Amino acid sequence: MTDAQPEMSPVPALEVAGLAKSFGSLMVASDVHLRVTPGERRGLIGVNGAGKTTLFNMIAGELKPDRGSIGFFGEDITRDSVIQRTLKGLGRTYQVSTLVPSVTVRENLALARGDGRLPSLWQPWQSRLDDDLMTTADQLGLTPVLDEAVANLSYGTLRQLELAMVMAQKPRLLLLDEPAAGLSHAERQVLQGILQDLPQEVTLLMIEHDMEMVLALSDRISVLHQGEMFAEGTPEEISAHQGVRDIYLGRANG
Amino acid sequence: MKREYLIILALLAVLVAWPLLMGNYAVSQANRAMIYALAALSFSLLAGRLGWFSLCQTTFAGISGYTVAILGVRFGLPFPLVVTLALLLTTLSAVIFGLLTVRSRKVGFLMLTLALGQMVWALSFQWVDVTGGYNGIAGVRMPVYGGIDFNATRVFYVLVTTVTVAIFLAVWRLYRSPFGLLLLGIQENEQRMRALGHPVALARFSAFVLAGAIAGVAGVFLVYDMGIMSPSPLGLGHAVWVLTAAVLGGYRSLLGPALGVAVLITLETLVAQYTDRHMMVIGLVLLLSILLMPRGLADVLEQRFKRKSKPQASATTTTQGEEP
């Protein structure tokens, strides 16, 4: 395999090539290219409307691209359904996470780790909660709220649950859509710690507006602008990039 | 947890005592109630778990009933074979209907089930050669085994009660299974369930077929209870009656549909004794109960119990809006 020669570029975890999508006359992605190597932490930034979530939706299979292809660990998944992609090891969180509001955190956790098959009609749902799942939940600080209805959770806790659900899937590639949005400063610190502690083999692609967090977590950062990849580089390169400062940092920092 | 078992034991006690203490009429009313409780359970399984309001669950009961009548009376097939074929054919119809409706949501689903139900209803009185048209097929009788006449009200009661209780217990189990939980998840957040790797369409379809099969069992009992199969149980009136009972009792809970049926049948029986305008009275009662208890009788009782035993449990409150 590729591990003998680290200098040679290995099979990428994610290879987006020439992806395009328009809604009517509105072009939301035109010829997007993105290559993320296994184990990498990649930040994806861009102003509102740059097409970040659209790109996520296409990678996750919730939106069909007009053109282009998506490779996942060397396999073309452009035509796969959402479930097929999930089963292959692609996990994602949503900007607005709701999960199943009327039931408890515990019951939501029991719904994690779908395997593409019909779950049991006869076993109690509690049978799906094993040590592994409960450990993940505990790491994310969910133990005190296990019997709380999801509808009653604070926003921050909801994000933790969202993350626990997707982590339980043991994804190879994790897409995080603004994980820190709406979190308090303390909650951001916790989240950053959790993301830093993710197993090294998990590849991370993260949309985030909190530049401090993106710069701290990312190995590399991609900048999406008006439906195209505008720049890519290390956090240092991106922070120093004049064009990026103009379109993003300048505006973001007022 | 323990309270739940107590309620079940109390209910079982009532069901055992009923034929011992009550008169023939009350027992036959109980038979009818049990049959409609199954139909309402079939409706509630879809409405409560998936948010799918079906107007064709009584149609499945009708298909099952006609199969029993045609095979039993016209062809004279033996009872076990008749029942097996009736349930198979009903399940098959549910498979076909399910394939047609599985992609639809809310109003779309309601309209599709309305259309399918009306088509079968029309077929039932227009396909005279097979169904006997409006006259229907009379003379549907339970068999006599070992000197026990299953047509006798109390014997029939034992049979209907046993099967109904077994089905309710199975659905109770299903509601607490990962599958039951997944159905709720699909109702509230379909996209998320898919992203978590659950086969959403298959789960919906399975629930639909299962509900159809339950309605099929109701249909078998209904036709033996009435002794005649005619188009009327397939009409929209019956479908709406079942919907009303389920909403009145509370379609989100397991016992809600049974409770709704029991209340509605009791009301109809009692009020009709005093006035010809009983529909007005029942309508008024329904109006008030929906206004005062939008989540159904079962929910009101549940909340009352909860307040007594624990200050507050969080699991049952929903944030979703009330769907029609």
TrEMBL record, chain A:
User: One Pfam family of this protein, by short name?
Assistant: BCA_ABC_TP_C
Where in the sequence is the signal peptide annotated?
none
Q: Which residues cross the membrane?
A: none
Which InterPro entries does the UniProt record give? AAA+_ATPase (IPR003593), ABC_AA/LPS_Transport (IPR051120), ABC_transporter-like_ATP-bd (IPR003439), BCA_ABC_TP_C (IPR032823), P-loop_NTPase (IPR027417)
What GO terms fall under cellular component here? plasma membrane
Give the UniProt keywords, A-Z.
ATP-binding, Nucleotide-binding, Transport
Q: Which PANTHER family match?
A: CONSERVED COMPONENT OF ABC TRANSPORTER FOR NATURAL AMINO ACIDS (PTHR45772:SF9), CONSERVED COMPONENT OF ABC TRANSPORTER FOR NATURAL AMINO ACIDS-RELATED (PTHR45772)
The name of this protein is Amino acid/amide ABC transporter ATP-binding protein 1, HAAT family
What species was this sequence derived from? Franzmannia pantelleriensis
From TrEMBL, chain B:
Indicate the segments annotated as coiled coil, or none if absent. none
**A molecular-function term among this protein's GO annotations:** branched-chain amino acid transmembrane transporter activity
The record, for InterPro entries, names: ABC_transp_permease, LivM-like
| Localization (cell) | Cell inner membrane
Which parts pass through the membrane? 33-52, 83-102, 109-128, 155-175, 201-224, 230-248, 255-274, 280-298
The cellular component terms of Gene Ontology attached to this UniProt record, alphabetical and capped at eight, are: plasma membrane
Q: How does it sit in the membrane?
A: Multi-pass membrane protein
Keywords (A to Z) from UniProt: Cell membrane, Membrane, Transmembrane, Transmembrane helix
Query: One Pfam family from the UniProt entry?
Result: BPD_transp_2
Name used for this protein in its record: Branched-chain amino acid transport system permease protein
